[in-house]
């Protein structure tokens, strides 16, 4: 990653004109914000994954769990979720609890003073008066960037973690996806050179958009985008892959991809973004995984899903050893704990503790 740049030193118009890659250095801090997948480097991902595993191991023993709780007990976090969430909200909340942060939340804007006409920007600025970090999910794409820029122009710039914005970015989901993939593919030589398939609604799935870019950081990967034509991956993501030199195949033929995929990332139809009821007219039955497909997949294939699911993954395969989606969800708690520690620059203490006590897996 190139040298850090300060958000406070750039106008909003100039900032908006930057590409996603160019924006990355503005989020490195201090304080660091986590806003887009494109701000991460491979080295940064590997550090977070190592830290997540160490936090998980330390937390297994009561004395380790008690130690972790002391690390950020002087901090408070705001969980501002202006869109529904189960996993992201709960795993961030659990990650805060593991590290001793107190949390507050607004999960419904009808309960905040936004109903009195307060702007979302003023609402965030209000939160920043009371807490040390804001974790935010918001329906408006790019709003997290706007808020980070706004906070950088106040005297209380605090870290902002994007927990999902519009249909464009879900960077912390991509972190837990990379962590799960790395762990799942370790037994077959790791991430490099692997074939990863994305299946379902790829046009509006922010998890796919963030993860597809993050995978460009690995060597010699081939990505398969398997979707009905109206729900195919956006050209903007394909342009990013082209620029990164990452190979990809765009297809509707799931059957041909199943036997060659090292990992399959299933997604649901995102009909909450429908503007003309297009989901109901788009056939999706060919983009499902069930027990009848398990014999076709590689024995080592990993099946992921950001969840929630509908019918695209049959519950019949939940106990197949290749089904990683429940583990993937729990991994979200560990990688988010690692991210929060790194946000407050406390990761070194965890490594020292780990090296001293070497907790067993
Ligand atoms: N994967 C994900 O973002 O799930 P939630 O919407 O339940 O947070």
Write up this protein.
This protein is an alpha/beta fold and 361 residues long. The protein has helices spanning 12-16, 20-23, 42-59, 62-71, 87-98, 120-128, 143-152, 171-184, 206-214, 235-244, 254-257, 325-343, 347-357; strands at 76-81, 102-106, 133-138, 160-165, 195-199, 222-226, 247-251, 263-266, 302-304. Strands 7-6-5-8-9 form a five-stranded parallel beta sheet, covered by helices on one side. Strand 5 (195-199), helix 9 (206-214) and strand 6 form a beta-alpha-beta unit. It is globular and about 55 Å long. The mean pLDDT is 94. Phosphoric acid mono(formamide)ester (CP) binds next to helix 5.
The share of residues in extended strands comes to 5-15%
The unique ligands bound to this protein are:
phosphoric acid mono(formamide)ester
Order of helices and strands: HHHHEHEHEHEHEHEHEHEEHH
Rounded Rg: 20 Å
Mean model confidence by pLDDT: 94
In order across it, which strands form the biggest sheet? 7-6-5-8-9
What form results from the Cα inertia axes? Answer: globular
Roughly what percent helix? 25-40%
**Main sheet overview:** 5 strands, parallel
Low-confidence stretches: none
Number of helices: 13
């Amino acid at each position: 990653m190139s040298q850090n740049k300060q958000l406070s030193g750039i106008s909003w118009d100039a900032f908006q004109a930057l590409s996603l890659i160019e924006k990355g250095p503005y989020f490195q801090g201090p304080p660091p914000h986590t806003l887009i997948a494109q701000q991460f480097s491979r080295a940064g991902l590997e550090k977070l994954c190592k830290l997540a595993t160490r936090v998980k191991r330390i937390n297994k023993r009561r004395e380790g769990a008690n130690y972790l709780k002391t690390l950020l007990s002087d901090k408070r976090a705001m969980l501002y979720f202006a869109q529904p969430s189960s996993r992201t909200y709960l795993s961030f909340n659990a990650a805060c609890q593991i590290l001793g942060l107190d949390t507050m939340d607004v999960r419904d804007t009808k309960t905040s003073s936004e109903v009195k006409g307060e702007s979302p920007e003023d609402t965030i600025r209000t939160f920043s008066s009371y807490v040390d970090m804001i974790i935010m999910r918001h329906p408006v794409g790019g709003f997290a960037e706007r808020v980070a820029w706004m906070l950088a122009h106040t005297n209380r710039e605090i870290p902002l973690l994007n927990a999902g914005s519009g249909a464009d970015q879900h960077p912390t989901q991509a972190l837990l996806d990379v962590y799960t993939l790395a762990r799942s593919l370790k037994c077959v030589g790791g991430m490099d050179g692997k074939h990863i398939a994305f299946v379902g609604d790829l046009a509006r799935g922010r998890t796919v958009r963030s993860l597809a870019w993050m995978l460009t950081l690995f060597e010699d990967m081939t990505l398969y985008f398997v979707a009905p034509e109206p729900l195919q991956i956006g050209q903007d993501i394909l342009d990013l892959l082209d620029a990164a030199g990452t190979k990809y195949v765009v297809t509707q033929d799931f059957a041909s991809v199943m036997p060659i995929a090292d990992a399959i990332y299933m997604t649901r139809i995102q009909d909450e973004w429908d503007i003309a009821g297009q989901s109901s007219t788009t056939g999706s039955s060919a983009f499902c995984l069930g027990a009848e497909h398990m014999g076709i997949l590689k024995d080592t294939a990993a099946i992921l899903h950001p969840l929630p699911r509908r019918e695209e993954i049959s519950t019949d395969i939940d106990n197949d050893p290749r089904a990683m989606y429940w583990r993937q969800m729990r991994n979200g708690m560990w990688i988010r704990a690692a991210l929060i520690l790194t946000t407050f620059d406390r990761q070194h203490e965890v490594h020292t503790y780990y090296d001293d006590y070497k907790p067993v897996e």
